[in-house]
Amino acid sequence: MALEIDGRALETDEEGFLLDPSEWNRDVAQAIARQEALELTEARWLVVDFVRNHFEERQTVPETRTILRMLGERLGKERGTRRFLHELFPYGYGQQACKIAGMRKPRKLMLDV
């Protein structure tokens, strides 16, 4: 499969995850979010940008507990919860946030546990 962005085709797997995370940019994120029927609010961008930065620094996708800790620190303890993360990404952090952040499909979607 391919995702068409500004006249270029980006290769994706059968679920829409980018095969090459280096092809990601904010326009790509917007296109993927539209496919997921999600508006990229400030809180969603916070998670997406955190995933990207974590990946660039460590070459891994952060686990859910790391995202929850970050949300609690930046948005307040009441938003550092699984419930709030689920409100942001109803089909799961690994399934939606990582996809929008341009990651390959996590090998284990245990990120959502």
Describe it for me?
This protein is mainly alpha-helical and about 110 residues long. The chain has one domain: DsrC protein, C-terminal domain (Arc Repressor Mutant, subunit A). The protein is built from 5 helices and 2 strands, in the order ββααααα. The protein has helices at about 25-35, 40-60, 65-75, 80-90, 95-100; strands spanning about 1-5, 10. The protein has a two-stranded antiparallel sheet with strand order 1-2. A hairpin with a 2-residue loop joins β1 and β2 (about 10). α2 packs across α3 (about 65-75). The chain starts with a strand and ends in a 13-residue tail after the last helix. The relative contact order is 0.18. The mean pLDDT is about 90.
CATH class: Mainly Alpha
According to DSSP, the number of beta strands is: 2
Largest sheet: 2 strands, antiparallel
Report the principal-axis shape. Answer: globular
**Percent helix among the residues?**
40-55%
**Based on helices, strands and strand pairing, what is the structural class?**
mainly alpha
Strand content: 5-15%
What labels would you give this structure?
113 residues, mainly alpha, Arc Repressor Mutant, subunit A, two-stranded antiparallel sheet, 48% helix, globular
